[in-house]
Amino acid sequence: MGMKTDMRLIDDNGLRIDGRLPNQLRPIKMQVGVLKRADGSAYIEWGGNKIITAVYGPHEAYPKHMQDPNRAVVRARYNMASFSVDERKRPGPDRRSVELSKVISEALTSVIFGDKFPRTSIEVYIEVLQADAGTRVAGITAASLALADAGIPMRDIIVGCAAGKVDGVVVLDLNKEEDNYGEADVPMAILPRTGEIALLQMDGNMTYEELTAAMDMITEAAKKIHQMQVDTLKSKYRGDEDVE
Ligand code: UDP
Fold first, then answer.
1. Which of 49, 63, 120, 150 would suit a FRET pair with 74, their CA atoms being 20 to 30 Å apart?
2. What is the pLDDT of residues 154-210, one digit of tens each?
3. Ligand 1 centroid, distance to 153 Cα (angstroms)
4. Which pTM value belongs to this model?
5. What sign for the dihedral angle of Cα 76, 216, 16, 168?
6. Domains identified in the chain and CATH numbers
């Protein structure tokens, strides 16, 4: 973020390096029920991101001291495959993936009716196979589909999406170059029906007005992504092809 460069990210026509308008999403494709041994699963392609998610549970939490007598413990694990990025990623958890696992666990916990399953654990695996910026939000979007696929009761299907600022312009859904060379990145997860925010982070610098504009852009896009999630879940039971 904010790396010095001569590279222009917005051209004279106001278009971005991949030809998108400021408020335009990258192409998104989703699919549920892709793994037969998980209780729920989903696959998402979002721009250059390719992410598979799986849910196990709820099942009795083990070791026992991990149990919460009142509710399910939701444990998300965000992992990047070593082949998912340009510079081979060292396998195993690092600071970044530990942080992401934590914030994603908290976001998902906030929508799950955990009190229906005391003493249990619900594990959510987010495996990034190919990364191109926005993996945490794409991961949350797919993870909530996998949770729905597992039949876990939730207040809503959560949507993750990012916005940010590049060349002084507030833009939706940053790609890798925009993430690297832009001024700010704001990943957010929301419940589209109520507008509740389940995750909000910011890297870089923006004014209050720019942040508000970014959040409004995400809220608008989230409605569209939410509709795709609903269509994806419905299509599984009709046996349709992937939703695009
Ligand atoms: N990235 C990378 N190597 C890493 C971590 C990240 O190449 O070890 C890339 C990857 O494409 C990722 C992007 O940088 O999607 C942005 O990473 P960030 O930490 O902002 O998280 P994200 O936007 O993916 O949620």
1. 49
2. 999 999 999 999 999 999 999 999 999 999 999 999 999 999 999 999 999 999 999
3. 31
4. 0.96
5. negative
6. 28-228 (3.30.230.70)
